[in-house]
Amino acid sequence: MRSDQIRATFLDYFGGLDHLEVPPGPLVTDEPDLLFTNAGMVQFKPYFLGRTSPPRPRLMSAQRCVRTVDIDRIGLTDRHATAFEMLGNFAFADYFKREAMAWALELLTDGYGLERERLWMTVLRGDEESVDLWRSLGVPEGRIQRLGPDDNFWSMGVPGPSGPTSEIFYDRGPTVGRDGGPAVDSERFMELWNLVFMQYRRGDSDDEILGDLPGRHIDTGLGRDRLALVLQGVDNLQEVDVALPTLRAVREATGRDDDPAAHRLITDHLRAAVLLISEGVRPGNEGRSYVVRRLLRRAVRRLVLLGVDEPVLGPIADSVTEVTGEQVREVVEREERAFRRTLRAGNRLLDSELRRGPLSGETVFKLHDTFGFPVDLTVEIARESGVSVDTDGFARLMREHRERSRAGR
């Protein structure tokens, strides 16, 4: 089943259950504590908090999201991506746990044809109500696992609505990993759907619960791309139908097939950067702009390590079919050319210093100040070489540099 069919099946199902489809929110959110929309519920935060009323008690959406918290895992796991689509159904003081669970189970099995016997559920430890509900829906006790708040409590990562979760996983089989459920192997048992029982108002951390929300709400997120991985029988997110053209273009540009993790990283980072550029974000040194710059720089560096000496990301960007426009390609090409110059200038010093051992704060500062070498890339390269970095010394020199700059104004 293609990704667009997965989306249509979801929206048709919940449309039949009186959910109103709303357009996706902007990827570049106006939420002050977030750089990008990282979940389908972001645009609905005022409804969860009771500040405004939703147009209907039941809503649904297909939301593009960007998350950078797992950037170091890209290419190393099957299930992580920087940009992805989240399919969500939402209820505001309407239905609650039982309906959300029953409908998710029905859609996955009857709608998408997944084998019920390969589905596992997790719940927040102590939430026996959810355990009983899953059992009443025919899920055996042995396929329900109780986990801690790190796994089964959800928030935006900032003050706002939050609540316990129940997650649905699919067993990809013994060739992928160890048996024992999601608590044992999260590659074999891949999370597909997160059901959030939105009940609480979060403070500055998940440990700080300020009280109950005005009502009990439902917020769910079904990862379209992860479900596509399962339904299309591919091995990782970069091989699903929406990403495969870019992966193929990367392979063609490198002319190699001996480093699949690098190819997948380049594919992931370029796709995410292209989506953000199409939303008006340009590479830069701060905030959202730096995320785009960092993604492109990590992709360029992998290309260099694979022996690609000339700029190639511009033509590859054309393979990201979700967006169009010559301007996106031009931005990518300009950034790649600039960073390749930076790499050539700084690599000689960095390679020499890496051979000597730990990198001093002075070396890191020189790479940054003289060659424009970003500190996070220096740390990443040093880590790959097993060399430590004096980041505290670098931070001290940066503070002194800024103070001198201010004093000289």
From TrEMBL:
Residues 1-409 form the Alanyl-transfer RNA synthetases family profile domain. The keyword ATP-binding applies. It comes from the Bacteria. The keyword tRNA-binding applies. Keywords: Aminoacyl-tRNA synthetase, ATP-binding, Ligase, Nucleotide-binding, Protein biosynthesis, RNA-binding, tRNA-binding. One of its GO terms (molecular function) is ATP binding. CDD domains: AlaRS_core (cd00673). Its EC number is 6.1.1.7. One of its GO terms (cellular component) is cytosol. InterPro entries: aa-tRNA-synth_II/BPL/LPL, Ala-tRNA-lgiase_IIc, Ala-tRNA-ligase_IIc_anticod-bd, Ala-tRNA-synth_IIc_core, Ala-tRNA-synth_IIc_N, Ala-tRNA_ligase. Transmembrane segments: none annotated. It is an enzyme of class 6 (ligase). GO terms for biological process: alanyl-tRNA aminoacylation. Belongs to the class-II aminoacyl-tRNA synthetase family. This is alanine--tRNA ligase.
